[in-house]
């Protein structure tokens, strides 16, 4: 109530209210004076602590009631004692902002970018080089296009993580990638040239989404440490027709590029394509490179032929349609998950097969059998599945057929997975594995006529496709690798006559290898003594005159060499076989001094992969690099990125 109103009330009121009136007036006047005094004090305080010459207030706000100031940058609340000292100290300690030059109120307040720049000075050249190298490694490892460095999201992320780093252009990263390729190429070429082992190649041809053809080549050898080493040599773009002559020339060009002598290559593994088989034959005739067909691709042909049965095709086709239904319906998948929980079935998704991989058909059938009852229950639910879709459920005889077919395919799937490995020895396992497949296929008993037909066809295909390699000419590289694998040295998959033939071949190969070793020693000795004083004329005459004695010494040396090799071979084959789960390379590392000639020979055969899967894996990487998003990459850059990605162990730092 204002003083005027109170006074008016007093004039019009009675005399008896005088005391009340005076009390009210006194109280209101006192409150008014207090308010005016507080306002004056606050105004004076703000005026006294905010001189225009101090920039501290550009970063703080005052809370006079609580006697505190609040930092605008980090929201810290400080006790205020009437001066700006505490604010200056906070800025120096927490935000690296000094009071230098803070004399003019007209000076601009620090912007956020200026503040960040003060806290994060530009990277030194050394720091920037480290960050750039890490980004390049990420692009190669994750197979990202170089254009990723131009993406707004990526630039913002890098700027946030390291504001002082200036992101180079896409062109700069491309040049760095080319330089990195050259460094890795030199390291790999040096590693290949320094090993004293022979090596095998795998090769395959692939076409990208941009319809560009590539030839993939990998190299495999056993190092001086008795470890299997696999290297990507190239995914070279192909411009000419894929004739056998051209393919053979391309393979020779890559060997020359890496300075691999032709005699150092023992074999080439390839698929069953007519042009590449013919190319391998040309190289075998010209250089002696053994031609070995890919086990995985051969098994694919065996199974494809065996699956061409009307009953099987109908059952597999029905299974494929059933899986497609669930793949296209989120509601059906959700209901299937509910049924799996109710029935206690593993909560696995159904698997869709692809035509190029027979084992994907096995995985589809195997998963469908596992989920048979949840699938049937889902399809039988009228609230979910319309009447015209209930035909999707398989008939009882189809379920039975698929169960038997799944059993028949299991051994083939196991063999395919094992023979596709490249970190362990595989080629020596091929003969006993094929024998095992023949035995298991022939001995199985099935009720379904369709699966019986599959059984007969698969058996015939196995025999026909490996007849020449494993059963007719047993002195071939594949069987010799089994003989030099201590796990299979007894050669139980061969007849007694064949075992004698293989052991004789091993002895002949070992003798040739020892002669080569002796010749190398003689050559080295000759070079070493070439600078020494020549013998006297008399010594020369006596030496030439005693040729009969020299011939006698040579014959004795040859006889001793034959005896030595024969004893080494007999001792090796006389030992007990190594356990199947043991690593044959570890065994050879531990016994190389006991069997020096056979150890050298073993490296030449055990290095051969049983399949061309390593080359196919290159195309998995190349496919990611040359995808639609990356289709603008030149074929040469696809080759470089694939090379770096596949050979990361040769150039990545720890």
From TrEMBL:
UniProt keyword annotation of Transcription present = yes
- Where, per UniProt, does this protein localize? Nucleus
Q: Name one Pfam family in it.
A: zf-BED
Q: Name one GO cellular component term.
A: nucleus
State the residue spans of region: Disordered: 539-560
Query: In this protein, which residues make up the domain named BED-type?
Result: 54-95
Q: What is a GO molecular function of this protein?
A: protein dimerization activity
The organism's place on the tree of life at top rank: Eukaryota
The alphabetical list of record keywords is: DNA-binding, Metal-binding, Nucleus, Transcription, Transcription regulation, Zinc, Zinc-finger
What is the protein's name according to its record? BED-type domain-containing protein
Asked whether the UniProt record includes Metal-binding among its keywords, one would answer yes
Composition bias type Acidic residues, residue spans: 548-560
Q: Which residues form the HAT C-terminal dimerisation domain?
A: 572-647
Q: Which PANTHER family match?
A: ZINC FINGER BED DOMAIN-CONTAINING PROTEIN 1-LIKE, ZINC FINGER BED DOMAIN-CONTAINING PROTEIN 4
């Amino acid at each position: 109530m204002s003083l005027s109103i109170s006074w008016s009330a007093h004039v019009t009121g009675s005399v008896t209210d005088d005391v009340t009136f005076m009390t009210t007036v006194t109280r209101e006047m006192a409150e008014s004076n207090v308010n005016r005094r507080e306002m004056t004090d606050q105004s004076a305080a703000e005026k006294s602590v905010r001189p225009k010459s101090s920039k501290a207030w550009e970063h703080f706000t005052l809370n006079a009631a609580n006697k505190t100031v609040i930092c605008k940058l980090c929201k810290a609340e400080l006790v205020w004692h009437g001066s700006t000292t505490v604010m200056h100290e906070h800025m120096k300690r927490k935000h690296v902002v000094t009071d230098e030059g803070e004399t003019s109120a007209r000076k601009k307040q620090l912007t956020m970018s200026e503040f960040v720049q003060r806290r994060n000075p530009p990277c030194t050249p050394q720091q920037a080089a480290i960050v750039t190298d890490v980004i390049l490694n990420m692009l190669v490892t994750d197979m990202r296009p170089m254009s990723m460095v131009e993406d707004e999201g990526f630039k913002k992320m890098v700027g946030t993580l390291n504001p002082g780093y200036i992101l180079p252009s896409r062109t700069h990263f491309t040049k760095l990638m080319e330089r990195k390729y050259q460094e890795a190429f030199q390291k790999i070429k040096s590693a290949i040239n320094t090993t004293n082992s022979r090596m095998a190649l795998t090769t395959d041809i692939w076409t990208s989404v941009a319809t560009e053809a590539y030839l993939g080549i990998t190299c495999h050898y056993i190092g001086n440490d008795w470890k299997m080493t696999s290297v990507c040599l190239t995914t070279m773009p192909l411009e000419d027709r894929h004739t056998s002559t051209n393919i053979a020339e391309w393979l020779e060009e890559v060997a020359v590029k890496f300075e691999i002598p032709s005699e150092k290559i023992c074999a080439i593994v390839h698929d069953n394509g007519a042009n590449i088989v013919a190319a391998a034959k040309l190289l075998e005739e010209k250089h002696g490179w053994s031609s070995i067909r890919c086990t995985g691709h051969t098994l694919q042909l065996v199974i494809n032929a065996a699956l061409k049965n009307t009953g099987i095709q109908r059952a597999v086709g029905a299974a494929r349609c059933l899986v497609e239904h669930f793949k296209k319906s989120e509601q059906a998948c959700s209901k299937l998950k509910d049924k799996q929980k109710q029935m206690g079935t593993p909560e696995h998704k159904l698997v869709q097969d692809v035509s190029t991989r027979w084992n994907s058909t096995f995985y589809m059938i195997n998963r469908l059998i596992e989920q048979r009852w949840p699938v049937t229950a889902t399809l039988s639910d009228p609230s979910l599945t319309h009447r015209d879709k209930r035909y999707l459920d398989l008939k009882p005889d189809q379920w039975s057929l698929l169960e038997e077919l799944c059993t028949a395919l299991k051994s083939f799937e196991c063999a395919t997975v094992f023979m596709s490995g490249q970190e362990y020895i595989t080629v020596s396992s091929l003969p006993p594995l094929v024998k095992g497949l023949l035995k298991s296929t022939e001995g199985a008993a099935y009720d379904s006529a369709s699966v019986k037909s599959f059984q007969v066809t698969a058996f015939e295909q196995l025999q026909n496709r490996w007849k020449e390699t494993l059963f007719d000419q047993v002195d071939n590289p594949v069987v010799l690798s089994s003989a030099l694998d201590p796990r299979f040295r007894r050669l139980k998959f061969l007849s007694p006559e064949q075992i004698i033939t293989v052991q004789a071949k091993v002895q002949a190969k070992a003798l040739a290898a020892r002669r080569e070793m002796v010749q190398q020693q003689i050559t080295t000795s000759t070079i070493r003594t070439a600078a020494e004083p020549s013998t006297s004329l008399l010594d020369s005459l006596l030496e030439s005159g005693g040729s009969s004695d020299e011939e006698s010494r040579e014959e004795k040396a040859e006889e001793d060499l034959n005896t030595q090799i024969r004893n080494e071979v007999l001792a090796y084959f006389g030992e007990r076989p190594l356990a199947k789960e043991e690593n044959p390379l570890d065994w050879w590392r531990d016994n190389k001094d006991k069997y020096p000639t056979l150890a050298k020979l073993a490296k030449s055969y055990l290095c051969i992969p049983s399949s061309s899967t390593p080359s196919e894996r290159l195309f998995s990487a190349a496919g990611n690099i040359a995808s639609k998003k990356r289709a603008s990459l030149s074929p040469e850059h696809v080759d470089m990125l694939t090379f770096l990605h596949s050979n990361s162990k040769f150039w990545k730092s720890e």
